[in-house]
């Protein structure tokens, strides 16, 4: 599959909100604040552009660098193969090479498979789930944007609700 077109990457805000709410199983639930969403989207699009500029291997190394620009506070980039194998993970490089397709959140929601499904079927989208926040060291609701960047690669970044 070719890279998602810029038009498909720019879904209108109502569609993003609806998709994120439906994917999280709560039709009336907002996916984070508008400012947080915008910052997460800019952050992830910067990472996707970096992949295009330098290639996946060099980009993944940068995403894993704890002193690099792709880890900012609680926000970090992760990339997986479509099958769930971790290629880059800014918070936990020990996950590299592991298949996390069956990973569930704190409430048992199979969010990893849902993220991949969103990227494959829609090209991009939002998903909410409960995850460990490295900044607060608490389990919190996380809103994640996922984008399919290559035939077999998806990347994401998220923020915790405030």
Give an overview of the whole structure.
The chain has 162 residues and is of the alpha+beta class. It has one domain (6-160): PAS domain (Beta-Lactamase, 2-Layer Sandwich), CATH 3.30.450.20. It contains 5 helices and 6 strands. It has helices at 6-9, 13-24, 34-54, 56-64, 111-122; strands at 71-72, 75-81, 86-89, 124-133, 138-150, 153-160. Strands 1, 2, 3, 4, 5 and 6 form a 6-stranded antiparallel sheet that branches.
Write a brief structural summary.
With 162 residues, this protein is an alpha+beta fold. The protein contains five helices and six strands.
Query: Which architecture name does CATH use?
Result: 2-Layer Sandwich
Strand content: 25-35%
Order of helices and strands: HHHHEEEHEEE
Count of helix runs: 5
Q: What's the name of the CATH homologous superfamily? A: PAS domain
Indicate the CATH topology: Beta-Lactamase
Please render the helix and strand layout as text:
Elements: H1 6-9, H2 13-24, H3 34-54, H4 56-64, E1 71-72, E2 75-81, E3 86-89, H5 111-122, E4 124-133, E5 138-150, E6 153-160
Antiparallel strand pairs: 1-2, 2-3, 2-6, 4-5, 5-6
Helix pairs in contact: 3-4
